[in-house]
Design brief:
2 copies of one chain form a homodimer. Chain A is an alpha/beta fold and 340 residues long. Chain A contains 11 helices and 12 strands. In chain A, the strands form 3 sheets. Chain A has a 6-stranded parallel sheet with strand order 2-1-3-4-5-11, sandwiched between helices. The interface between A and B is large, with 47 and 46 residues. The structure holds a DNA duplex (16 and 16 nucleotides).
Chain lengths: 340, 340
DNA sequence: CTGAAAGCGCTAACAG
DNA sequence: CTGTTAGCGCTTTCAG
């Protein structure tokens, strides 16, 4: 079997406590002893049993991350960021798929399997405001996303309204006045779509531009194909527009594609902006201007928050943290020099 | 603190052994006792401590999955499949990022953190054949991918050569004779690029079509933009072609894009096929014909293999398992009815 | 059919 | 500065 503290202790001719002290960098160990123990550890290739350590310490060193599915780019990149942030502080991440299904999300919250983790970073898609109370759990839980606000836990999300407003203002700053929106959800108030549409309207209002319902294209899902279909709708509607705000990058990419097929040139005829700053947006043709919603900050803060709640901050009031956003200017909104 | 076996035992008026028996569905428990214990469990909302169970049983219920990064769609979807497969048999998955870096991959193999898992599903990108011996480890390890063959562990991968050959034959079957390849790697023999190019050449040979070096476009990375750039190269090369084989979907998607911009119609002027069957290939315009490399089967088999190696099959000789592939026909290779 | 008790490998009081 | 010892919560012989 695997080598234990006892084996090392015997080999080094000390007690297991001393070995433990060396391993945990406990200061009061004589140098000679320390090196002797170190040698024994190396010789035997001793590796601590993390399970035993967990049982003793009550910590597992693992964080659960529950999200809809990794085949959605946004969540894949979110997971990547969370794993990286966790790794930086020596934690590992267990990923759980909910499929965006409300029942599975609720189930997740009380799952046995959660017991092997120190906390849960939870990104629901199916749950709504009416489920907020269910987030009251006895372990560190951090909520992500735009489905539930004002819940009983720390909530880390992006400045959807402000960022969408800034994105729209960016287009307005380019001289655009007829700005189409791709991916809106009918009658949604919270939720990414609702909040971002609010930001859009705020920017319009501030600039004195009238809101035109005909410029809004609705989709239920946010895949590339939905962006494409929405753009087809817009083109058929025969309404003029000189810019497009894709409510996320995937939509914008799909819309951009159809725009180009229709013979319009981006960014000369139409400027396009997205939201999410996915990796692939950097590589599209033209590259896509987008809103970086601060994913790494969200990930880092989420992990940090779990750790804080673990050691003593259990009773601090729930916090609402909004990550800083940033417009990433790329080719799709380049200023075009027109010869006059 | 949390409720333990003792608490339940006390509440039910039995010993902890009996409670344990009930929890583990041990058959020889009197019905009356069983229900009494069940009630106590419900009343106290008892949940077993998985860490303690792990310490005792020597199993953690978690599998590690080491891969380059989740922002690459292929790996995101692979991870999704592995998580799903693991979930089906009650295991969770810890994802580790290597960035495709050889040193980090080697490090992964001996990491302390691996100790919290029952085994490792390992998808290297930086390591090569010369590192095969490093895969000799004392825990269940399953190798994925095309970097190392004939190593000391179970290896699950796809039929790269056969599938690439079938993809090429699919194009030939459409009447195509000048088939360009996007994403080749210079002088590579193993590795996805090398193997798939071999399959391509086999199909050509079998059909009596001469290999033309000018139809091969090389790229180092396999992003969309690389597919686009490669296609630009091909077009500038001024060489005729009537079909494109993207060595993966991402490349094919990028290439398709540039083809369309150049005024060529897919599939009328040029047929395009990819490799990987990513989710997004279903939603492109036109939708992309591709090779489904059997990702779910790979994931399922990998998880299964870890479990088998855990209980007794330690000494079975390493197996090389190739998943079944399948051509997924979509619009990009639709047969075009030409009026003659 | 059920109970007592040992022990998985580790950490942390508490002694010395 | 180092050793002894008592558990963390569970499973599992071994007795009854």
């Amino acid at each position: 079997m695997s080598v234990t503290l006892h084996d090392v202790a015997r080999a080094a001719g000390v007690s297991i406590k001393t070995v433990s002290n060396v391993i945990n960098d406990y200061p009061h160990v004589r140098d000679a002893t320390r090196t002797r123990v170190r040698e024994a550890i190396d010789a035997l290739d001793y590796q601590p049993n993390l399970t035993a350590r967990s049982l003793r310490s009550g910590r597992t060193g693992a964080i659960a991350l529950a999200l809809p599915e990794l085949s959605l780019s946004y969540f894949a990149e979110l997971a990547d960021s969370v794993i990286e942030a966790a790794e930086n502080i020596g934690q590992v991440v267990i990923i759980e798929r909910t499929g965006g299904d409300r029942d599975r999300e609720l189930q997740m919250l009380t799952s046995w399997r959660r017991k092997m983790t120190d906390g849960l970073i939870f990104s629901p898609l199916g749950m709504g405001m009416e489920d907020a109370a269910r987030l009251s759990v006895s372990y560190p839980l951090v909520l992500l996303g735009e489905r539930i606000f004002g819940g009983p836990t720390d909530h880390i999300t992006m400045k959807n309204v402000d960022a969408a407003r800034a994105a729209t203002e960016h287009l307005i700053g380019l001289g655009r006045r007829r700005i189409a929106v791709v991916g809106a959800h009918k009658d949604e108030v919270v939720g990414s779509a609702g909040l971002r549409l609010t930001g859009y309207r705020q920017a319009l209002d501030a600039a004195g531009i009238a809101f035109d319902e005909r410029l809004i294209a609705y989709t239920t899902l946010w895949h590339r194909s939905n962006g494409a279909t929405a753009m087809h709708d817009l083109l058929e509607r025969d309404v003029e527009f000189d810019a497009v705000f894709g409510l996320n990058d995937t939509l914008a990419l799909g819309a951009m594609r159809v725009l180009q097929e229709s013979g319009r040139h981006i960014p000369v005829d139409v400027s396009v902006i997205g939201f999410d700053n996915l990796d692939e947006s950097m590589y599209s043709l033209p590259s896509l201007t987008t809103v970086d919603p601060g994913r790494t900050q969200i990930a880092r803060t989420a992990v940090q928050s779990i750790m804080e709640r673990m050691d003593g901050h259990e009773n601090v009031a729930p916090r609402e943290i909004l990550a800083d956003f940033r417009i990433v200017e790329r080719e799709s909104t380049a200023r075009v020099i027109t010869s006059s």
